[in-house]
């Protein structure tokens, strides 16, 4: 029976871990269909200057604050400036599985995506589909609770805490945290000393309002949305990580595209580094850009009470924080949600470090998981 249960968990988690860790990222047929058939696929501005080795580059991302680098960089024309006459085509996704499928099918060349789908995309292809070529964002995940029911971390026993999906990045983080505090929870069902309730981020606020959950371990802007409903922040996930940093968004590329068009990939990475620099130098303008892009791509902008604290909780950076990717994978293995993955070769930071060196910025490390 135990072996059967373990097999069931593995089967469930293989699909669940493919989901991206951002807002509205739960994988389902409708989300995948929407991402693949109704996502935008138009150029992001007029291209001028010299054309690189490809006529165009197809870029995927989420209409999500943790994907602020592409949101701002595209909105400001930063990427197009670096690409010259090579045209940008964009595709907006709702779910990690759809973005990985699009990368594998050649529908996109480069994408911004969470750590869990990057890990799964790499391992399921036996290391042949993608490389992580840069970082984008850290943080932006919080444990928020009903203050009338939970006054401290010791009060979590017997409570219902939501995560976005079985086996996704936040689900693994909560399970790992609870285990470290001595709480026992069955990873597959979520039952135990603390009830882990898998709830789509889009409906988590309603679940909280109706009292069916007592809190949630969720990314922004869901966490800040819950705060506007009366919840309080009990724990910021960055506080449990060394140096208060952990990967929430990476940049991936098709290995085929990387091999055939390294100049284009390098240009996109220059755009990413420049976009992150713009965000740091112009935080208010960047925040407005991101919100405008979200309104354009997702249909609704975020209200200031949600946007302001959510944006403040995310750090945009070029370092992929490779050591934390390995830790996140290890946590999933410990929770019984993932077989130990072989991540050797998942990173190729050669072009990123070339870009950083040209700007007299320090190189970033691959934690021993780079290409040989």
UniProtKB/TrEMBL annotation:
CDD domains, per the entry: PBP2_NrtA_CpmA_like
Family statement: Belongs to the bacterial solute-binding protein SsuA/TauA family.
Broad class of the protein's primary localization: membrane
Subcellular location(s) per record: Cell inner membrane; Periplasm
Taxonomic superkingdom: Bacteria
Stretch forming the signal peptide: 1-27
Organism of provenance: Streptomyces rubellomurinus (strain ATCC 31215)
InterPro entries in the cross-refs: ABC_SsuA_sub-bd, NrtA/CpmA_ABC-bd_dom
RNA-binding as UniProt keyword: no
Keyword Signal: yes
Protein name, as recorded: Sulfate ABC transporter substrate-binding protein
NCBIfam families linked: SsuA_fam
PANTHER family in the cross-refs: ALIPHATIC SULFONATES-BINDING PROTEIN-RELATED, TAURINE-BINDING PERIPLASMIC PROTEIN
UniProt keyword list: Cell inner membrane, Cell membrane, Membrane, Signal, Transport
Gene Ontology cellular-component terms listed: periplasmic space; plasma membrane
UniProt GO MF annotations: ATPase-coupled transmembrane transporter activity
Transmembrane portions of the chain: none
